[in-house]
Amino acid sequence: MKSMMKLLAVGAALAATSMALAQDTTTTNTDLLGGLSNLLLGGGVVGLLVVGALIFFLFRWFGGD
Fold first, then answer.
1. For residues 56 and 61, what is the distance between their CA atoms, to the nearest angstrom?
2. Phi, psi for residue 38 in degrees, rounded to 5
3. For labelling, which of 10, 35, 42, 48 has a CA lying 20 to 30 Å from the CA of 27?
4. Per-residue pLDDT reduced to its tens digit, 1-38
5. What is the CA radius of gyration of the chain?
6. Model pTM above 0.70
């Protein structure tokens, strides 16, 4: 059950990242790292939400219960 929740959390984080990258029209790089750096540097609210969600899920993933 825990592994299924971890899988869902990672899937949600990846989905949020891909949706945010699709909305970011200033992205000139097509790779994921370039898009993430653009989100971090100038993504505004969407970038903050995505980064916050990723950090939250990573802490939940590695922190355990």
1. 9
2. -65, -40
3. 10
4. 677 777 777 777 777 766 666 665 554 545 566 666 66
5. 13
6. no
